[in-house]
Each structure stands twice: as structure tokens, then as C-alpha cells.
Amino acid sequence: MNEVNKTLYIPLYGKSKVSRQGIILNDPSAERIWKEEAFPICGQSRSKWLAYNMAMRARVFDDWTDSMLKRSDDALVLHFGCGLDSRNMRVKTPCSEWVDCDLPDVIEIRRRYFQEDETYHMMALDASKPEQIGSLPDHDIAIVVLEGLSMYLTNSQVHDLLQALDEKYRKLHILMDVYTEFGVKASKYKNPVNDVGVTKLYGIDSIGRIIDGLRIRFVKEHSFTPDALVKELAPVDRLFFKMLFTGKLYRKIYRLYELEA
Known about the structure:
41% helix, 7 strands, globular, 261 residues, Rossmann fold, single chain, alpha/beta
């Protein structure tokens, strides 16, 4: 497994840790998988503050996916860079089909823990190769989850991925987190992915440039740390977490964009 793939263990650890505490995210699958995988992460990756942040990010993506399915319960859900995430189990609103996509060695591990059925499937797919989008199921409406992925792709690769999706599906709902260029520069000095050997990340300062020429348009920016979730933390933790992850500096580093076509 390469360095980028190893980053999947960082959010897995965070989700399992927070789930055990009974706050923010109920994820017994993450607890079980983390215990069985026992991947040796260290340094910032084991920070409880990062665990809170990873769990909140996951919860925001969960809630958004659920809200999109309530609008279009016959939609196809595509989760790119799924890692060992159990969003397909956490989101309760049914869909016509859900496909979790990641690189082949990740999907190989994933198959140990998740079983396919009539509506749930797993697919080996490289998001940096837009020609592979054609192998995804045909559908009228696609809900696309791009969590923790764009920062490992160049701006051109992100554009090409979105273009391929734009050409394949009549209607798209997309949620995507991105680092800014400033965030990429800052990450050289303090980023948990460094703990697993990742040294190259990419930032997006203008989402407009990424979607230029596509049918896809910007809808709105979401918060990674909604007040309702921050309030689930203990009072002392809440104060420190707000200083780390809810101020203007954090937004200069990290953004969460909703797009649609």
C-alpha cells in the first residue's frame, strides 16, 4: 500500500475513537475495523483534536448525503476515495445504488469488511484517470462524495474528474473538500499525513477555475465544524477545539464546497 493509501487510517482512527466516546458519529464498523487493522499511526495522527475534526467532517458528509437522498431517493451514490469508511451503513436513507470507489489495493482490504448486495457495490478505480469514469453504472442522477481526495490530485486532474462526471450524468450533486494553496504550504510543517510519508499535496484557491467550461456550478460553502457538533464536545475540549478548527485561519487552509449540475 502506498503512502497516499495509508492516509485512510487517519480518519479511520479518528472515527473509531470518537464513536467509542458516544459523540458526533456512531460508527461501530470503524471501531471494529480499527481494532482488527491495528495500523501503527503516531504523532499528530493520534491527536484527539484531529479525531474530533475527522469525525465532524465525516458527519457533515453523512448528513449532506442523507439530505440529497431525501430529495432524490432514486439516485446513484458515488463515494470516491472511500478507504475503509462505512458511510454506506451510516446513511440511512435508501438509494437505488451505492458504489464505493478506491484504488485496487484499498478495495482488496475493504472486501474483508464489507459485503456487496443488490444495491451496494465496490469498484477499483483511480480518480486521476477520468477514462475510468465510463465504467461506473449509468444513471440519471449521481450524488458524488469527494472527501479527503482532491488534495492528492493536481488541479487539472480534479477538473478532468469533474468533467468526466459532468459528461456521464445528467444531474450531479457533489460535495468536495479542498486545501487552499496556503493550506498546502502550511501542511509542509504540520500535517498528520506527513506521519505516513505523504510529501506532495495540491491546493485549490479558485473553485471557479476548476469548473470553468463545465455545466457544474458552485452552490455554497459548508462548515466542517457546525456549532451543533462542536457542542457535543466537553466544555474544556470545546474551547480549545474552536481555537484550532473554527477560526478564520482554519478557513484559509481548508474549504468544503457543494457543487451541482
